[in-house]
Write a structure and sequence with these properties.
The protein contains 23 helices and 22 strands. The chain is α/β, with parallel strands linked by helices and about 700 residues long. The strands form 4 sheets. The protein has a 7-stranded mixed sheet. It has a 7-stranded parallel sheet with strand order 12-13-11-14-15-10-16, with helices on both faces. Strand 19, helix 18 (about 525-540) and strand 20 (about 545) form a beta-alpha-beta unit. Bound molecules: adenosine-5'-diphosphate and magnesium ion.
Length: about 700
């Protein structure tokens, strides 16, 4: 059991009190002493290492200098007002600058008294300065030693004088308290096997490291703990679902599947498509609910797999649904599927938020009556008034735009839950997939249909734009179509909109209407209007489609062979890969042209290089993760699933794999945690459940 001491409200810690306590609660979620302990440092600085001013260079991270502040004064007016000081050591001088809390800081500065300053040096007008350095006064001339933890704070916390140092002092107070004791939660055999520090010791190592190395061992223990618990929960959910949730048994393959496969399949399936189809088929026959993720790079042919899976559902007397993240995609699926199954006499319906009221009412009625076999739609499908008579399979396309919570909505209202297939073109590493997708099984299409020519990708600076225009003209003269994409970034939607409009008008001048038909789609257009333009482009009535990233996902126009991306430095790597995937879908040689400004940051350079070096979605996804972190991957942020305090799913991948194995082993040996050696674990989980509530279903 967690002891009483750790449950003590934070305001009772010496020096905190009700006011600061309130800020700690709202800003950092620290309610108790125990919460404080779990506020881990996000980095450490080596306080035993000092630099001198003549050693400084601009690439240095945070550094520590020892010397004196010789003068300090306020300069500027209003918003430009700041505090400026001169700091000297034996080798030179630098400027210190503060923009905030000027009065408070000014009062704390003693002139000509030895101090240590800590901050990041930057070069300005040929002299170094440091913005908002930390200043520490040396008592008895004894400098601090060893690694010092740095804690996350916020502006609001700082305005209540709770900075990193203050949090550090709170930790010291906690550890000085005699009542403090921390119990172990992991079984001894795991501590031994994985060489983990005991919990209490590990907290001390992390918060008050005694030397330069031991914080790492402490961190390791908590990372292990965090990832291990995560994996136990996920594996537990999966086992529970496999045990408890009944699903439809799709025991046969019948008329629709067979007829389609023999007579209407427009091409031979790739081996990879056959393999995943087998996996899906087997999964839907077990009597358990299928919960499967279908990964396949853009253009790998997920749609046909989806359709064949739906035909199995229909052959087993149930209805199937496919849900897309946008109107355009829903439309595309509707047309594509309607056409493919037209020889079978199946009834296909489509419901989006754009469907007229009367038509919607009719559709819903037909759906309940079982008059519709395949329902295509957008989010509109998960509204409460949409009820299927007998839904057997739900397919979610390009899932990363759907939140986890939205997925859960799909079958909460059902009795026997339909099988679920989630399709995504964001190929993420397997271990990570298993973690972020919770308890989904994974199938992968790891092969492209034959006869595709590799897309040629080039990078050009904006100054060479006219050459690109000439190239576009020659491609269009050969009957090809092109995409021309402008970035859309949330923070400045209006600006980007202007950017797009200006670009469109310029393009219109370069490609005059007398010779070229150019259409435009963007997020602010009405769905209906978007659709008209998209359809015209699909039918080949437009030579060029100018757009924002609304075309990013899924759109299939095989005759389009050129993708030009303006300001490509402003896109994420996976996004660029998605966009590139819009071309190279037909037999013709395709091109992806990345335009950028001449000035490129390091990360932008790496992204562009990655795009030039590889077309492999998995490599790209791996790199993207490294450059960006898992962040908002796949809409998981809302779920709280990945609310990790200390571990990092990308950087700690090895540990993720290890803990996954440990979790699987545990649940295999002792699924209900009844063995005496696992008592601690069970108690801990029970306690967590009380605090955090049961885990809502993650998929
Ligand atoms: P995605 O996986 O990106 O959704 P699609 O399902 O849209 O890919 O397929 C991309 C294109 O490849 C479509 O034009 C589709 O008809 C075609 N295609 C799919 N599978 C095959 C195959 N086995 N052989 C040839 N073409 C295929
Ligand atoms: Mg698709």
């Amino acid at each position: 059991m967690q002891n009483q001491f750790l449950l003590t409200p934070i305001e009772y810690l010496k020096g905190v009190g009700p006011l600061k306590g309130e800020v700690l609660k709202t800003e950092l979620g620290i309610f108790t002493f125990g919460d404080l302990l779990n506020h881990f440092p996000f980095r450490y600085v080596d306080r035993s290492k000092f630099f001198t001013i003549n050693e400084l260079n601009e690439d240095m991270p945070f550094v520590q200098l020892k010397g004196i502040i010789t003068e300090i004064h306020e300069i500027g007016e209003g918003r430009g007002k700041r505090l400026s000081g001169t700091f000297k050591d034996q080798t030179g001088e630098i400027e210190l600058v503060w923009f905030q809390h000027i009065k408070w800081i000014k009062d704390t500065i003693s002139i000509n008294k030895t101090c240590i300053i800590f901050g990041k040096p930057s070069l300005f007008n040929r002299t170094y300065n440091m913005v908002h350095p930390e200043v520490e006064w040396i008592e008895n001339d004894k400098p601090p030693k060893g690694m010092q933890p740095v804690y996350a704070t916020t502006e609001k916390l700082k305005s209540h004088k709770i900075d990193s140092k203050a949090i550090y002092r709170m930790m010291q107070l906690l550890f000085e308290n005699k009542a403090m004791s921390i119990e172990e939660v992991l079984p001894d055999y795991l501590l031994t096997k994985y060489q983990l520090e005991p919990r209490g010791k590990a907290y001390r190592m992390v918060h008050l490291p005694a030397n330069n190395t031991e914080f790492a061992a402490g961190q390791m223990r908590f990372k292990f703990e965090e990832l291990f618990f995560l994996n136990v929960k996920i594996a537990g959910l999966k086992n529970k679902r496999k045990r408890d949730v009944k699903g439809f048994v799709f025991s046969k393959i019948d008329y629709n599947f067979n007829t389609f496969y023999k007579f209407h399949l427009p091409f031979e399936l790739t081996e990879a498509q056959k393999k995943v189809l087998k996996e899906i088929r087997a999964d839907m026959a077990t009597g358990k609910q299928m919960n499967r993720l279908l990964q396949g790079d853009v253009g790998s042919g997920k749609t046909i797999v989806a359709l064949l899976s739906m035909l199995i559902a229909i052959d087993n007397r149930t209805q199937a649904a496919i849900m897309a993240p946008t109107e355009i995609l829903a439309n595309q699926h509707f047309e594509n599927i309607s056409q493919l199954v037209s020889g079978l006499g199946l009834r296909v319906g489509m419901l989006t938020s754009n469907t007229k009221k009367a038509a919607k009412a009719k559709l819903i009625e037909a759906l309940i009556d079982g008059q519709i076999d395949i329902m295509v739609g957008t989010h509109a499908l998960i509204e409460n008034d949409v009820v299927f008579q007998n839904p057997g399979l739900v397919i979610i396309d390009e899932q990363h735009r759907f939140g986890v919570a939205q997925r859960a909505k799909l079958w909460n209202k059902q009795q026997t839950p339909p099988h679920v297939l989630v399709m995504t073109a964001t190929p993420i590493p397997r271990t990570l997939a298993m973690t972020v997708y919770g308890d989904l099984d994974v199938s992968k299409i790891d092969q492209m249909p034959e006869g595709r020519k590799a897309i040629k990708t080039v990078h050009r600076y904006e100054t060479k734009r006219h050459e690109i225009f000439d190239f576009l003209k020659s491609e269009m003269a050969n009957g090809r179509q092109a995409y021309y994409v402008y970035p859309l970034i949330e923070e400045s939607e209006t600006l980007d909109y202007q950017n797009l409009m200006e670009g469109f008008h310029k393009l219109k001048q370069i490609f005059p209407e007398t010779h070229y038909k150019i259409g435009m789609v963007h997020g602010k257009m009405k769905a209906k209007d978007k659709e008209i333009v998209m359809n015209a482009f699909k039918k080949g009535e437009l030579n060029m489609l100018v757009s924002t990233t609304v075309i990013e996902v899924g759109v299939n126009v095989p005759n389009a062979s050129v993708m030009v991306i303006e300001n490509s430095e402003r896109f994420g790597l996976s996004q660029l890969h998605q966009l590139r995937g819009r071309v190279g879908r037909g037999a013709e040689q395709s091109y992806c042209i990345l335009l950028s400004s001449v000035k490129l940051g390091q990360v932008a350079k790496e992204r562009i290089k990655a795009m030039l070096d590889t077309t492999d979605g998995f490599e790209i996804a791996n790199l993207d993760l490294k450059l960006r972190g898992p962040g908002d991957l796949l809409g998981t942020r809302q779920s709280g699933l990945l609310d990790l305090k200390i571990a990092d799913l990308v950087k700690d991948e090895d540990l993720l794999i290890k803990t996954r194995m440990a979790a699987d082993e545990l649940l295999k040996e002792d699924p209900l945690l009844m063995k005496p050696e696992n008592i601690r674990l069970r108690n801990w989980f029970e306690q967590l459940r009380k605090v955090k509530g049961d885990w809502s279903r993650v998929s």
